[in-house]
């Protein structure tokens, strides 16, 4: 069980690294194709990777606003339940315009498939 928790927390960190690098494949390798997403910048539920990619396409273009300079995930609480995992954590996000750090609260549901653990639902809120 501890191995699974370590894997999921490492995956969260790798996805956030992928965000900072602009590397979607690094993020998407952990996402199930039918996963659902409550994105902090979107009102409707994003259905599957297709829906997530549509939401990504609506985000401001690079260079059109303050740039994220750092993302620091912390305070994970990860529980495992018969082939499912729930990962709750916070993310402190800093911007190039030096405005106050934005804190994001995140909950992700992971499921074990024959080919590994994949995120099947993600919910993020800006606090």
Can you put this structure into words, describing what you see?
The protein has 127 residues and is α+β, with helices and mostly antiparallel strands. The chain has one domain: Nuclear Transport Factor 2, Chain: A, CATH 3.10.450.50. The chain is built from three helices and six strands. The longest helix has 20 residues, at 2-21. InterPro entries: DUF4440 (IPR027843), NTF2-like_dom_sf (IPR032710).
Task: Explain the layout of strands and helices.
Layout lengths: L1 H20 L2 H5 L2 E8 L7 E2 H11 L9 E14 L2 E12 L6 E12 L2 E11 L1
Parallel strand pairs: 1-6
Antiparallel strand pairs: 1-2, 3-4, 4-5, 5-6
Helix count equals 3
Helical content stands at 25-40%
In spatial order, strands of the major sheet run 2-1-6-5-4-3
Structural class: alpha+beta
How do you describe this structure in short?
By secondary structure, the chain is an alpha+beta fold. The chain has helices spanning 2-21, 24-28, 48-58, and strands at residues 31-38, 46-47, 68-81, 84-95, 102-113, 116-126. Residues 8-117 form the DUF4440 domain.
